Amino acid sequence: MAEMVSTSPPHPDEGETRRDFLLIATGAVGVAGAALAAWPFIDSMNPAADTLALASTGVDLAPVAVGQRITVVWRGKPVFIDHRPEEEIKAAEDVDLAALVDPEPDSARVQKPEWLVVVGVCTHLGCIPLGQKTGEPRSPYGGWFCPCHGSMYDTSGRIRQGPAPKNLVVPPYAFTDDTTIKIG
To answer: Which of 11, 83, 126, 158 has the most crowded CB, counting CB atoms within 10 A?
Structure first.
């Protein structure tokens, strides 16, 4: 009996197709593995939850009486909030800007005239000025006094006397309603 012999040669691309598939699949698994291994390192570069919590601070101003000053912490710094009475507002608005070291009108430093919000760090060497608590000495201008080197600030947080080169910094803040602010 005669054997049947196939006269057609084997398909020449059949071996290469299987090899190409295996190379592509292995490469894809390798790339996915590298991405999964790198993710914890990439994710560790995001800010921590406690850092994000410090990025902004909400403050309820309803319990703050006229003439009262409170201190809150924002990004590790004290923020002075002053519920200014009419005489402090008037004193701050009536200042001759030409006489100031760092001229800035009161209207540029407040969103509502009765509320002054400033970072409570002296712009000279980073001390914390006095005048925030009841009974602490204030400057002759009704604001804050830095006892370390004698910088004196007025009721708008502007430098009036002493070595400080700039006014107390006004942090970014916004009123979320009539009696609440969000700092940061």
So the answer is: 158
